[in-house]
Amino acid sequence: MTLMTAIYPGSFDPVTNGHVNIVLRSAAIFSRVIIAVLDNPHKKPLFSASERICLLQEVFAKENKIPQACEIEIEAFSGLLVDYAAKKGIRTIIRGVRSSEDLAKELPYASWNRQLACGSVETIYLPADQSLAFISSSIVKEVAMHIYQGTQGDNKLAQMVPPVVCAALRGKYKKNSI
Ligand code: PNS
């Protein structure tokens, strides 16, 4: 049995293999998954919201493990997540958790979101695949900066992010890159 629609929100700056794994597992549960990319004017991301959306679109256009019964949508949102969920008529939020520290950080958000939405929104946590639990967008950016501004090859980075993201990170960090 598949459930209805869920929102998978995040910064996705940039999308990693950890995110991709959470989307694929969500797609086996829900018939529609909306990847909601936070466009926060107060934050200075490495990739703009439209760049992050383009990367996600490219990644999932090439992804052949999405169950046929599931529709994946990708869009930007700003403001409160619960307002976006209400506008879309969606009651379920998915978050991936890599560790007990992640869960401790996430739980207050779930409570706040539930209260702000007067009980009409629930958060479902999916534990990260253990082989991917060390990956975060922040570490990916740090590693990429050192790799592309230095002399190391990017084969280790290629294990953390899809190939299009590797190329995009190279474009951001590599000196004199075209
Ligand atoms: O990938 P991230 O940065 O961990 O994602 C965090 C995100 C986007 C899920 C969170 O910051 C968010 O929902 N922001 C929108 C504003 C909001 O609703 N904040 C929660 C109020 S308690």
The ordered H/E elements are EHEHEHEHEHH
Distinct ligands? 4'-phosphopantetheine
Helix content: 40-55%
Q: What is the rounded Rg?
A: 16 Å
The level-1 CATH class: Alpha Beta
**Class from helix and strand fractions:** alpha/beta
Instruction: Examine the coordinates and then state which fold CATH places here, giving the name of the CATH topology.
Output: Rossmann fold
Major sheet summary line? 3 strands, parallel
* Helical stretch tally: 6
Distance between the termini: 48 Å
Mean pLDDT: 95
Q: Please state how the strands of the largest beta sheet are arranged side by side.
A: 1-2-3
Keywords:
178 residues, Rossmann fold, two-stranded parallel sheet, 6 helices, binds 4'-phosphopantetheine
Describe the structure.
It contains six helices and five strands, in the order βαβαβαβαβαα. With 178 residues, the chain is α/β, with parallel strands linked by helices. It is globular. The termini are far apart. The model has no long low-confidence stretch (mean pLDDT 95). Bound molecules: 4'-phosphopantetheine. The site of 4'-phosphopantetheine has 9 residues, from β1 and α4.
SSE topology:
Blueprint: E1 3-10, H1 17-27, E2 30-38, H2 49-62, E3 71-77, H3 81-88, E4 92-97, H4 100-116, E5 122-127, H5 137-149, H6 163-173
Parallel strand pairs: 1-2, 2-3, 4-5
Helix pairs in contact: 5-6
Summed up:
The protein has 178 residues and is of the alpha/beta class. It has helices at 17-27, 49-62, 81-88, 100-116, 137-149, 163-173, and strands at 3-10, 30-38, 71-77, 92-97, 122-127. 29% of the residues are buried.
